[in-house]
Amino acid sequence: KRPTQFRLALRMFRAFLRWAVEERGLTIEPTIARTRKLTRLVGKTVPKSDHLLKNQLASWFKEVTAIENSVISAYLQCLLITGARRNELLNLKWSDIDWKSSYITLHDKVDEFRPVPLSPYVRSLISVLPRENCWVFSSLTSKSGRLVEPSIAHRKACLAAGLQLTLH
Questions:
Q1: Cα–Cα distance, 90 to 130 (Å, whole number)
Q2: Smallest Cα–Cα separation from 158: which of 52, 13, 42, 22?
Q3: Which of 43, 125, 113 is nearest to 84 (CA)?
Q4: Whole-number Å distance between alpha carbons of 106 and 99
Q5: Beta strands in the chain (DSSP E)
Q6: Digits of tens for pLDDT over the chain (168 positions)?
Q7: Is 165 buried (19+), middle (13-18) or exposed (0-12) by CB count in 10 A?
Q8: Predicted TM-score of the model (pTM)
Q9: Other Cβ atoms within 10 Å of 60 Cβ, number
């Protein structure tokens, strides 16, 4: 049902086996988790190829702005406009925003950080968000204090707009 999660779990298990052999001297064959049957079961990784087209923007924005949770709505719009990766924006802190110079510092997975211009529209979305903690996209219901899973609301908005899109 969740092949991506299964592949991730298998990669982590294989990494653990390699660590156990190298660091702890266990006499397990690390290729034990590389059988043909398991490889067939896991399947191949398929890159996501869906994207929002210009003629779909109006219906996408209509449904996303109608999301009752203003934090999720703002997050999804900012994600599209800034072009940030999902977790770069989820991990955005109030201290990462330079209101005077109008830019956001995103903590990049490739480089240490990268500045992104703070457009007037993104500024208007962010400036009205509640400042409940250090996270820009905060959530009082999550353990971390920040938004964790915006995909559910996004799928519902896309369904209402007649679109099939994933967050990536």
A1: 15
A2: 52
A3: 113
A4: 14
A5: 97-98, 103-106, 114-117
A6: 677 788 888 888 888 888 888 888 777 776 777 778 877 777 777 777 788 889 999 999 999 999 999 999 999 999 999 999 899 999 999 999 999 999 999 988 777 888 999 999 999 999 999 999 999 999 999 999 999 999 999 999 999 999 988 887
A7: middle
A8: 0.76
A9: 22
Phi, psi of 102 (to 5 degrees): 60, 60
Residue 163 Cα distances to 51, 72, 119, 127, 150, angstroms: 10, 18, 26, 29, 16
Q: How many residues does the chain have?
A: 168
Whole-angstrom CA distances from 17 to 30, 82, 103 are: 5, 39, 44
Location of structure tokens 């999902």: 86
Structure tokens at 18: 């390699």
Specify whether the CB–CB gap between 135 and 93 falls below 8 A. yes
